[in-house]
Design goal:
Helices cover 39% and strands 12% of the residues. By secondary structure, it is α/β, with parallel strands linked by helices. Strand 1, helix 2 and strand 2 form a beta-alpha-beta unit.
Amino acid sequence: MSRAPESPDPSTQKLTLPAIADMRAQNRRIVMLTAYDAPSARLAEAAGVDMILVGDSAGQVVLGARSTVPVTMDEMLVFTRAVTGVARRPFVVADMPFGSYQVSEDAAVQNAIRFFKEGAADAVKLEGAGRTLTRISGIVDAGVPVMGHIGLTPQSATLLGGYRAQGRTAAGARRLVQEAIALERAGCFAIVLEAMPAVVAERVTQAVRVPTIGIGAGPACSGQVLVWHDLLGLSPTPGPRFVKRYAELAPIITQAIEAYAADVRSGAFPTEAHTYGMPDAERERFMSDPALTRSR
């Protein structure tokens, strides 16, 4: 008698677009976190996050740049492959870096397909509305899911007057609601809302049917996202007001490295427990080999 296949464990199943839509419909909050390499992706998955964003914030927190703008497609593909190589359940979204979609719709589609094929991403994220809408429609038509991003859009922070909250006037808030609706119509399956008044994010969330992922946008969003280094206290500064640091790992890591350095300098590391031995007979043969005797 053949045995019926066991039902898969829901906690280990790959999160899909329909499942993400269901989470919004069922008012189940979506947990999203950035990751840029295999170790962080593995830990994020073990902790049960729903979505991983391979953010162009890597330019700042990994590569040491002053903004996200210098990050290249090739760099983002390396980060994305590192994450998708180990992440099994989380839905992985890759940030399209500055210059990868602004030039033309053709370039946007080609670069999005690279993330899909070479990076094995589940979706890509683009900032802004306006001209970005045609890029989004083209990418979606090509078969690549797209997450939108409005409010504070770091790639265009200079045009916005710097890194500051958006939608703090009635006109600005109305524009954000209109942009969110336009992004949904263009085909976005979800929208990141960054640095805007909570009441505006709530109105945006009510105005669209797709999930909204907040970062500095209050509690009414469908989910939240934070940057890995900010959440774990690895950033050199506290960060924006919307950051909650759940740990302060930088001092712990520094102390561990200091202890290692002290052990190396004192000769306390390595000990015999950290080294490999040889069988006595092989050691005797090796030590007595005349060919290895230093000439005097």
